[in-house]
């Protein structure tokens, strides 16, 4: 499973740093103190110059222990905080949602290694600066610890560049917090562990890689599922190396002007899913690319960026779903790529009711438009919030109860209209919590060994009645789920956000409930540990009548009691599937009777010890004739393919002459939710992709309009 960047993990533990104007205080075990023991309860406090203001906080290791910030001190992390902002997504929050001119952040048990630290807070309003100190002592009785060694390419120890790199250990259940250790000038480190650590599995990785190791590649990225014993554990060694390939650039607004962001992002290899995190400093970033084996030429990468600190002034760009941020890289490349943000200039409102009364429990409301980006805000005690958006666009709006996207509603309640609506500037999108009529439930089990990788926050189970989508949360302890639904007929699906788990069955279909509960909808999960690459050689992609951008494969057996994996076609005509153990039936896409393919299908046997497979299908044109011109002889609009789809489908249409074209997607109520095309298109065959990952399962309508034709067809999103 891919490791979430430390800043995001850190925020869930309540830790983060900020700015101040006149003072900085440390609270240790609820007492004001600048000295603590590793593992004590910790909080910090500082003031800002204006009520509701913000500050920039930096955390350093005081390397010479002089309690003065000087050039030799090592920066660990830096971020913004805002007075009264309690959102748990991004920097550590102010513990109070009431703006009062004071930022107080409860960190909880702080496992920073024994050392001296310095906090520098810079007020955003008047640029005043205050510096605070903190000394951490080692615990009196340490019974378990982790050791290791960090080496750096081109560096011969002892060397100062190997010093003060902070390493992190945390239990895999995230119940005992994080514990740290600092490297010395030879790269050696030791991490003290708390009492009871030997009863759990732990992991080890770099703590502040985005800041301390910016521009470097680390191997391995982390160690996981370490069985801790009393005494010494390890060694767990890491290597830091300079990458041969870089992506660098700036964060800019819609006018091309620099936005001085201090957020983080990642660069992901789409073949191997290896990911390198990076830190953005004052709007600039640089990140290295990781290649695997001989796969070093024209490899697809995805650039991701989460400017959480810039909300609500800007929208977060949809880099993860935007082809503009998919790069093809080869070893030795140095690629410049700016990331564009759109500023906000208006608002969209959300109101939540429960039994007709304003809902007092805070929920996260999110809005997204594929073209300009995404934002979020938490509702207040009256169930209300304002989402800052950009005018002129329509947004999909949905709710969640945590920062992972989970929706945990009160037992016995559901969202009357499902968890997907739309709105434009000035609208108030209303969500109504009403008593449920029926329940769909079941239990999660695992193929042997898969459970150790499972994170319930990265998965869910949902039900669709072809019009609305109802989400269920998986309980991490009992591994059960419950979906409160109205009476009706449903399809029930397991979803893994990272596609790291495959389910058997693939889905349950036509489940009927009427004032009742169906509690037998169980899923067995298998960890997708292997990669299967399918390549099409000489495929007639320029003239095909059949859908090839998206493909699925499944294990042998009776559907739906099989495992199924899907993938999009890459630019090099390959599909990269995540697969688990089993006999996978792989069938070549069909391009019509004029094209012969060899082989037409194959079966790949995957075991728990396998990591990668390669399947090649070679096509031959039996006519020996070059494909005809793609200019159609008459206007047409094809049915989307695939249909049903999840999450991407293609709409193909042919134009005999150039002219204005609009292509819109509507929900079943006739409300336009997204415009895919709006402009002049040339004569020819056009294929437009729609990614429905931000929308609920159900029936939608696509409508294509020209000066002479209007065609509407239905399409089914089935997650």
Structure description:
Helix content is 2%, strand content 49%. It has 7 domains: 6-137, Immunoglobulin-like; 144-241, Immunoglobulin-like, CATH 2.60.40; 246-340, Carboxypeptidase-like, regulatory domain (Immunoglobulin-like, Sandwich); 346-435, Sandwich (Immunoglobulin-like); 439-525, Immunoglobulin-like; 530-621, Immunoglobulin-like; 636-717, Immunoglobulin-like (Sandwich), CATH 2.60.40. With 719 residues, it is mainly beta. The relative contact order is 0.07. Strand 37 (459-464) and strand 38 (469-474) form a beta hairpin. The chain contains 2 helices and 59 strands. The strands form 13 sheets. Strands 36, 37, 38, 39, 40, 41, 42, 43 and 44 form a 9-stranded mixed β-sheet that branches.
For the structure shown, list the relevant keywords.
719 residues, mainly beta, 49% strand, Immunoglobulin-like, disordered N terminus
Number of strands: 59
Give the distance, in angstroms, between the N- and C-terminal Cα atoms: 21 Å
* Morphology: globular
Average pLDDT across residues?
A: 86
Report the helical percentage. Answer: under 10%
CATH architecture level-2 label of the largest domain: Sandwich
The CATH class of the largest domain is: Mainly Beta
Alpha plus pi helix count = 2
Look at the helices and sheets and give the structural class. Answer: mainly beta
Q: C-alpha Rg, in Å?
A: 27 Å
Low-confidence stretches: 1-20, 625-629
Compute the number of structural domains: 7
Strand content: over 45%
CATH topology of the largest domain: Immunoglobulin-like
Describe the biggest sheet?
Answer: 9 strands, mixed
Give me the CATH superfamily of the largest domain.
Immunoglobulins
């Amino acid at each position: 499973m891919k490791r979430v960047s430390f800043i995001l993990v850190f925020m869930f533990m309540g830790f983060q740093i900020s700015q101040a104007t006149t003072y900085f205080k440390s609270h240790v075990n609820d007492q004001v103190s600048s000295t603590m023991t590793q593992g004590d309860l910790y909080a910090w406090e500082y003031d800002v110059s204006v009520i509701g203001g913000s500050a920039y906080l930096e955390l350093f290791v005081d390397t010479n222990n002089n309690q003065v910030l000087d050039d030799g001190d090592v920066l660990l992390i830096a971020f913004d905080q805002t007075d009264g902002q309690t959102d748990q997504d991004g920097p550590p929050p102010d513990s109070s949602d009431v703006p009062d001119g004071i930022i107080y952040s409860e960190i909880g048990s702080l496992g920073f290694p024994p050392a001296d630290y310095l906090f520098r807070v810079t007020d955003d309003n008047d640029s005043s600066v205050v510096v605070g100190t903190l000394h951490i002592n080692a615990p009196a009785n340490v019974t378990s610890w982790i050791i290791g060694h960090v080496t750096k390419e081109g560096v011969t120890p002892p060397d100062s560049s190997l010093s003060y790199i902070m390493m992190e250990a945390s239990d895999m259940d995230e119940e005992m917090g994080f514990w740290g250790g600092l490297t010395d000038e030879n790269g050696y480190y030791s991490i003290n562990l708390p009492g009871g650590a030997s009863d759990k599995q732990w992991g080890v990785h770099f703590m502040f890689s985005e800041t301390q190791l910016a521009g470097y590649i680390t191997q391995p990225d982390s160690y996981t599922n370490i069985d801790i014993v009393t005494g010494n554990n390890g060694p767990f060694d890491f290597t830091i190396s300079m990458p041969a390939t870089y992506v660098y650039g700036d964060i800019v607004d819609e006018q091309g002007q620099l936005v001085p962001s201090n957020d983080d992002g990642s660069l992901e290899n789409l073949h191997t899913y290896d990911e390198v995190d990076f830190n953005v400093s004052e709007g600039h970033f640089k990140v290295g690319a990781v290649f695997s084996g001989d796969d070093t030429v024209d490899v697809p990468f995805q650039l991701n960026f989460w400017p959480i600190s810039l909300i609500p002034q800007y929208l977060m760009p949809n880099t993860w779903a935007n082809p503009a941020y998919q790069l093809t890289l080869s070893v030795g490349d140095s690629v410049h790529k700016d990331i564009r943000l759109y500023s906000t200039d208006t608002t969209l409102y959300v109101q939540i009711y429960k039994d007709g009364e304003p809902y007092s429990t805070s929920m996260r409301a999110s809005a997204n438009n594929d073209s300009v980006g995404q934002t979020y805000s938490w509702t207040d005690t009256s169930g209300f919030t304002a989402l800052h958006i950009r005018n002129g666009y329509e947004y999909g709006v949905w709710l969640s109860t945590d920062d992972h996207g989970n929706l945990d509603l009160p037992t016995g309640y559901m969202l009357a209209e499902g968890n997907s609506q739309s709105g434009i500037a000035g609208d108030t999108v209303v969500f109504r919590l009403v008593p449920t009529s029926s329940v769909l439930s079941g239990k999660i089990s695992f193929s042997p060994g898969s459970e150790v990788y499972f994170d319930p926050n990265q998965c869910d189970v949902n039900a669709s009645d072809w019009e609305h989508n109802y989400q269920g949360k998986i309980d991490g302890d009992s591994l059960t789920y419950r979906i409160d639904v109205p009476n009706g007929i449903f399809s029930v699906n397991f979803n893994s956000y990272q596609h790291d788990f495959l389910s058997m069955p693939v889905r349950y279909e036509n489940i009927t409930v009427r004032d009742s509960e169906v509690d037998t909808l169980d899923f067995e999960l298998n960890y997708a540990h292997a990669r299967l690459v399918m390549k099409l050689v000489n495929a007639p992609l320029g003239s095909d009548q059949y859908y090839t951008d998206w493909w699925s494969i499944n294990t042998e057996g009776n559907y739906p009691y099989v495992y199924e994996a899907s993938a999009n076609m890459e630019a090099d005509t390959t599909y990269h599937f995540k697969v688990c153990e089993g006999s996978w039936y792989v069938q070549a896409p069909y391009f019509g009777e004029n094209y012969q393919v060899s082989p037409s299908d194959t079966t790949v046997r995957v075991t728990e010890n396998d990591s990668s497979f390669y399947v090649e299908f070679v096509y031959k044109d039996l006519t020996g004739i070059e494909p005809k011109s793609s200019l159609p002889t008459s206007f047409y609009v094809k049915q989307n393919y695939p249909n049903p789809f999840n999450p991407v489908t293609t709409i193909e249409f042919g134009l005999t002459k150039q002219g204005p074209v609009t292509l819109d997607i509507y929900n079943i109520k006739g409300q336009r939710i997204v415009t895919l095309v709006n402009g002049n298109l040339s004569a020819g065959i056009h294929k437009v992709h729609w990614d429905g990952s931000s929308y609920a399962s159900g029936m939608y309508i696509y409508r294509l309009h020209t000066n002479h034709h209007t065609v509407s067809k239905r399409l089914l999103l089935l997650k």
